[in-house]
Specification:
By secondary structure, this protein is an all-alpha fold. The chain has four helices and no strands. It has one domain.
């Protein structure tokens, strides 16, 4: 095994561990945070970064064109679906008054929904 392959394996292992740690922080945030909006933030941001780090670590370990292409598709769809799903959960929680709106500093949706002009 060449030195370059050993360095790539070591970097891949470090990225895997840091990505797993980032995902663990997201799970802890989902369990510990008080409301739906904070939990959806914890479900999206750290999980997406953690997934990216894990997939880059796996790509460094595999080093095969087909595998890297598949991992790139996983990253693309993760970045496409995770923020959209989080937004939809937060919006439905807001519309059903599950967000604790009294703690919001600025509420841009209130005028839209109260006038009946919202979507």
């Amino acid at each position: 095994m060449s030195v370059g392959a050993q360095v790539a394996d070591l970097a891949g292992a470090l990225l895997l561990f840091s990505g797993c740690f980032q995902c663990l922080l997201g799970v802890i945030g989902m369990l510990r945070l008080p409301d739906v909006l904070a939990r959806s933030h914890a479900a999206t941001k750290p999980q997406t970064l953690g997934m990216l780090l894990v997939l880059v670590g796996v790509a460094l370990r595999l080093r095969n064109g087909i595998d890297i292409g598949t991992l790139a598709l996983v990253v693309f769809f993760q970045f496409l679906t995770s923020p959209v799903a989080s937004h939809l959960v937060a919006r439905s929680a807001y519309r059903t008054a599950q967000t604790g709106s009294r703690d919001l500093v600025r509420d841009d949706l209130d005028p839209q929904l109260s006038d009946g002009e919202g979507d």
